[in-house]
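task queued by scheduler; priority normal; single chain, no ligands, no partner chains; default sampling; output format set to structure tokens
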Amino acid sequence: MISIRIVLHDLNQASAQSRSPGGKLLSIDQPQASGNHDRATTWKELIPDGIDSGQLQFQELKEEIDYCLKKCTAGSRSPERDRLIFQLYIFEGLDIPTISRFPGINLTEKRVANLISELKEKIRHCLQSRGIRP
């Protein structure tokens, strides 16, 4: 969770300008052009009520991690199992002994720990190649 929060913070600072059209910083309070010619829309109106920017950033980061996870496990003998192990550890917060006892995992605690470490490193490189500093 600490590394996720660090990535979220860095992502917020690093990608603020890269997502705006034309490389200009945009305010969420200032009207933006919309498909509706009757009036301009502010970015605040486009963000659903009840979702704060932290939740949006976390969801975006999770999607990036999921993309990299799929890419990194594509050549594996058991890509679904490897993705499940990583997701249980990172997103669900389960410990390695618990994960190794899951039905269908069939790996020792040592192998689960090594797999998680390998995937973390590969995902870190993938995120960096996508412009996200973990």
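post-processing summary
- Confidence is low (pLDDT under 50) at residues 15-28, 31-48.
- The chain is about 55% helix and 5% strand.
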